[in-house]
Amino acid sequence: MRILYHHPLHPLCRVARIMLAEKGIPFEPVIEKPWERRVEFLALNPSGEPPVLVEEDGTVVAGGLAVMEYLEEAYPDPPLMPRDIPHRAEVRRIADWFLHKFDREVTENLVGEKLIKRLSGQGHPYAPAIRAGLANVHYHLDYIAYLAERRPWLAGPALTVADIAAAAALSCLDYVDNVPWDSHQEARDWYARIKSRPSFRAILADNIAGCPPPRHYADLDF
Amino acid sequence: MRILYHHPLHPLCRVARIMLAEKGIPFEPVIEKPWERRVEFLALNPSGEPPVLVEEDGTVVAGGLAVMEYLEEAYPDPPLMPRDIPHRAEVRRIADWFLHKFDREVTENLVGEKLIKRLSGQGHPYAPAIRAGLANVHYHLDYIAYLAERRPWLAGPALTVADIAAAAALSCLDYVDNVPWDSHQEARDWYARIKSRPSFRAILADNIAGCPPPRHYADLDF
C-alpha cells in the first residue's frame, strides 16, 4: 500500500492528503512527528520534514512541494492545475503565498507557538509572536476575499491546488481557533465550499491527543 | 522587451536569471528593492516579493517558484528538469531544500542580517543569528558534497534547477564572504563547475553600491 508520512498540523501535509483524496488515490496515512528526527524517516527525507510519499514500487517522493507537483504529474485526472501555462503560474503564485508567506507571517506565529512548541516540548509560547500572528491574519483573509470576489475559485474558474493550499493553511489555523471568521464573511463563504468537499473529511476528523480542536472546527455550518 | 524584476541578493531571483541565461532567453533585468514596497510593483505581485517576469505580451509571472516552473514549461529547450516524473520530484526536493531550508537556516541569518538589514535601513545585525548561520552552513555544504560524490550533478546525470537553486543560494552567501570554502573542497569543486558557466556571468558581475563583494567572489579560480 502507498504510504503518506504526514503530520496533522503541517499545511503541506494537508495539501498532500487533500490532493490524494480529490484524485481518489488510496493511501495509508502514517503520522510522523518531525521533532523526533527518527533515523528511518531521515533516510526517506534527509531534511527531516514531512510529507513523504512512498509508492508501492518503492518510489520515494520527499518534501511538500515535490509531493504537490508529483501528484499532479503522476495522477493528472482529475486535474488540480489548469493546462494553460500562464494560468498554471497564477495557481503556483497563490499556492506559494499560502504555503510560505502565510506560513511565515501567521502559521508559525500561532500554530507553531501555541501547539507545535507544546507537542514537541520546546517551551512556552512567545507572546509577541502570537500578537504578530493575530494581527497578520486579517490581511490574508482580506486577500482571500479579494480573490474570491473576482473568481469562482482563488485562481480561476476551477478548484486548483491554490485553493487546496490556502484551505490547508487556514484549516491548521482553525484547529487552534485563530481564524476570525466573524469579521471575514467572504473568506468564510469560500472556506465553507472547500470544507464541505469529501476530500476534506479526514482533515476535519483530525484530533491530536490532549489538544482537541474547537467545536466549530469540523462543523460544516460554522 | 521581456522584463525581469529582481534583487541581486535574492536567491530565487538568481534562479530566474540563471535559468533565463541557460535557456538563451533575452530579458531586461530591472532591480527591485522589495523593502520600498513600490505601488507599481505591488500591482504586479501583491506579495511584494521579486522576482516578477513580465513577458512581451503582458503576461505577468509573479513569485520565485512560479517563475521557476513557468520558465521550464514555457521554454523547455534546453531542459533544466528531467522528463521522468520521480526524477523531477528529486530535483524539486533538492531545489526546495536550498530555496527554503537553506534560506531559513543560513541565508536569512547571514545575508539577511549583514546586508539586507543595512540596505533596507532595518537596523543592526543580530549577533546570535549570525552565529547560527555560520554554524549551520557546514551541514549544508556537507550535504552538497554528499550528493556531488554520488552523482555528476546534484540531482543526477545532468545540470538541473536543483544545481541552479543551490548555486543561487550559495552565491548570495559568497557575496557576503561567508562560505567556508577551505574546509569544503567537494562543494567547492561542484560550485566551480557551475560558476564557470556563461549563465553565471551576470551573477558574478553583481556589485551593490557601497557593498562590494569580496575579491574571490567573481574569480573562477577561487
Automatic annotation (TrEMBL), chains A, B:
Subunit structure of this chain's protein: Homodimer.
Matching CDD domains: GST_C_family, GST_N_family
Protein name: Glutathione S-transferase
Pfam families: GST_C, GST_N_2
Segments forming domain GST N-terminal: 1-79
Keywords carried by this UniProt record: Transferase
InterPro entries per record: Glutathione-S-Trfase_C-like (IPR010987), Glutathione-S-Trfase_C_sf (IPR036282), Glutathione_S-Trfase (IPR040079), Glutathione_S-Trfase_N (IPR004045), GST_C (IPR004046), Thioredoxin-like_sf (IPR036249)
